[in-house]
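**User:**
If convenient, please work through this fold.
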Amino acid sequence: MARVLGLASLLLLLSPVACCADSPPVTTPENASPVTNMTVHPRKKMFSWNYQRNVTEHRCQLDTPPNSTTRQSPRVRGDHTYFCHFPNAVLHRGATFTVHVTAEGHPYRSVLDFRNPGKEGSGAVNFSCRIHHVRLMTCSWTPGPAAPTDVQYRLYRWSSMRDEDEVECPHYTAAPAGTHIGCRFGEFTEPRQKAYSFLVTGTSEQTPVPFLDFGPLKTIEMEKPDPPANLTVLHNGSHHIIQWDNPRTGSDVASGALYYELDIHREGSSSQEEHVFQRGNEINVYVMPSSASGAQHRVRIRVRFVRSELWSDWTVAKAFGPQKQGFPKGLYALVMIGLGLAMSFIFFTVKIYNSCKLERESRREDGYWVSLRKTPE
């Protein structure tokens, strides 16, 4: 009986421990994470927070889909708010912000999940930006398939190479209903950066609209070059020498970073010769044997950057081929003009001469009759 009572007493002593062994530990101010007030500013790509007690080590981390992770050392403002800035992050698909800290020898991890607010399908789509005519930037987009009728979009741009405030589009283009669907940034007023990031926000009184962000987009991949300059074709007796100059570009690249396409077409033929592709040089030349151009041909050229798929417009086609006999059209016109001037000169000269001759004869005849009247009887 004593053994049974002893065993029962032992079970009673152990039962509180057994029932609470799997319970979560009680959080107290001493073991709670020191991280508080975590917030995200999606337009500024800024993650900020505060500490409720001293920490000895800390770092921040950003994870974005599909598999991108960025880590930074936090900075602090004058009001003791800590922050990390991710200017090149793409947040419209969602993100996870994490702060890892060590306080009083204990590690802590605080997580904030960010989701792009707004009605799915109402944000801007089909966004693209182009740099053209060396110093101009133009962007365009279309409203989402589920965009409300009163939606309005705004575009912001900033350099991805430094911390700076975004610049809003100065000149919007709009659809007939007034919805912004494009932007003309105009000429660059300062040295162009190597890459830019973009953000398109949306507003509506009917529903929140999700934003669309990009970055960084490399400048050289957005630039549409001007067509090649000064296309000429010379003939040295055995070959036709096609020459052209490198175009003006806003990107600081060597001539070898340019890639040319020559389209040589035989007039009167439905088939085209094989297009010629070659890298740029300080002096660009393509030599074509005269035997290969026994008929009249036309050549045009376009260019792109080696690391871009954005071609320039074609140049105006240049005709070349065998020399034609007879007067060139330009020389024939000059001869006809000269001949006309000569005939006019001869006509007026003869007219003046005849007029003077008649006047002299008239004077002579008048003098004769005067002399007769003065003769004494």
Observations:
- The radius of gyration is 42 Å.
- The longest strand covers residues 209-218.
